[in-house]
Automatic annotation (TrEMBL):
<protein>
    <recommendedName>
        <fullName>Ammonium transporter AmtB-like domain-containing protein</fullName>
    </recommendedName>
</protein>
<keyword id="KW-0813">Transport</keyword>
<keyword id="KW-0812">Transmembrane</keyword>
<comment type="similarity">
    <text>Belongs to the ammonia transporter channel (TC 1.A.11.2) family.</text>
</comment>
<dbReference type="GO" id="GO:0005886">
    <property type="term" value="C:plasma membrane"/>
</dbReference>
<keyword id="KW-1133">Transmembrane helix</keyword>
<dbReference type="GO" id="GO:0008519">
    <property type="term" value="F:ammonium channel activity"/>
</dbReference>
<dbReference type="InterPro" id="IPR029020">
    <property type="entry name" value="Ammonium/urea_transptr"/>
</dbReference>
<dbReference type="InterPro" id="IPR024041">
    <property type="entry name" value="NH4_transpt_AmtB-like_dom"/>
</dbReference>
<keyword id="KW-0924">Ammonia transport</keyword>
<dbReference type="InterPro" id="IPR001905">
    <property type="entry name" value="Ammonium_transpt"/>
</dbReference>
<keyword id="KW-0472">Membrane</keyword>
<feature type="transmembrane region" description="Helical">
    <location>
        <begin position="66"/>
        <end position="97"/>
    </location>
</feature>
<feature type="domain" description="Ammonium transporter AmtB-like">
    <location>
        <begin position="2"/>
        <end position="116"/>
    </location>
</feature>
<dbReference type="Pfam" id="PF00909">
    <property type="entry name" value="Ammonium_transp"/>
</dbReference>
<feature type="transmembrane region" description="Helical">
    <location>
        <begin position="26"/>
        <end position="46"/>
    </location>
</feature>
Length: 144
């Protein structure tokens, strides 16, 4: 079950990064949503009385469990979407939920906290080395 869940998450991530452009920087939906749905569905296939004293899964003589698991996944999706919209719609109306393009270019560290970070790249004739970021406090970014 874990291998199938991990493989499905990995394959979806590869497809998502290549063909879709969702604003999901940490891949939260893919890891938790898709991984959880695959695990929930597969539990309906493999569960058995020897482990949980409740019901068997589809592979152990109780195929209706697949439909129960699918219904559980759908209810969870509807509930999650509803709760997310209840939070995001008022936020969008009151303060907005998208960062302005100018602020994205300037950097959220600078806009929200007044901090600037810069990565130094040192070029040599043989290769290019990158040093660790160093903090700059009084060097604002200018946008023209």
């Amino acid at each position: 079950m874990g291998a199938a869940g991990g493989a499905s998450v990995n394959m979806f991530l590869l497809v998502k990064k290549r063909f879709f452009h969702f604003d999901d920087t940490l891949d939260v939906f893919t890891c938790h949503g898709l991984g959880g749905a695959v695990g929930t569905f597969m539990t309906g296939l493999f569960c058995q009385n020897l482990v949980n004293n409740s019901v068997n899964g589809a592979f152990y003589g109780y195929p209706i469990q697949i439909w129960y698991q699918t219904l559980g996944i759908l209810v969870t999706v509807v509930y999650s979407i509803t709760c997310t919209l209840v939070i995001l719609i008022p936020m969008h109306v009151i303060i907005g939920i998208k960062i302005k393009r100018r602020d994205q270019i300037r950097g959220i560290d600078n806009v929200a906290h007044g901090e600037n970070w810069q990565i130094e790249v040192i070029s040599t004739s043989s290769n290019t080395k990158t040093r660790k970021p160093k903090q700059q406090t009084n060097n604002p970014v200018t946008i023209s």
